[in-house]
Amino acid sequence: MITPYWTRPEPPYHVAIFTITPSGTDPEGYAAMNERMVALAESQPGYLGRESAVLPDGSDLVVIYYADAESIRSWKQHPEHLVAQQLGRQKWLARYRVEVAHVERAYEFAADSDAAEDRPGPS
Amino acid sequence: MITPYWTRPEPPYHVAIFTITPSGTDPEGYAAMNERMVALAESQPGYLGRESAVLPDGSDLVVIYYADAESIRSWKQHPEHLVAQQLGRQKWLARYRVEVAHVERAYEFAADSDAAEDRPGPS
């Protein structure tokens, strides 16, 4: 489930940014694993939303938001996720980078709301 | 210029995540503004790289990495960027959210390197 980005809370919260280059081996298996991992990510406590897109070079960019760093750590250590990471490195993935970051500020704008200004977050 | 994601340094560094929904008005003007803003972002001191993709709903996801929060602040306050933000809100943009985050940890993997393990960053 994609949670609309404008429903995310005010910071602070956390984000995990995945940049993933598939190896091209067994694309069906990779897609199935991806789908399962996304479902698992969404079922973790603290899940706030995500965005997924394909980059021009065919890599996947997945940005997943969590309420805190501990939620990200729990998800990384989930037994099913550990198996997927292992299989991914053996078969499906040519390269990846995961970045865990602390969201400190957010600014937003909506043309159809009263808040039609660049609205800084509280911090 | 897209800098390959695997060339980013070890954390800490900063990231600005833009989720942008165009209004549909003047798409050529929006595209030209986007291109100019990306060039401006890349010319800022501290620029480390970026990823840009289109989300399934047609919104743009742009992730720009900088060495520090000050670089992001300078870019946000660049006179040309301020004009673009103003015009964007008046014409090109239905909605956006910008999140500024501190990258605390990174993990990476490359199948073709010796480091064929999930390698945690230094922090």
From TrEMBL, chains A, B:
PANTHER family assigned: ABM DOMAIN-CONTAINING PROTEIN (PTHR37811:SF2), BLL5343 PROTEIN (PTHR37811)
Protein name: Heme-degrading monooxygenase HmoA
Source superkingdom: Bacteria
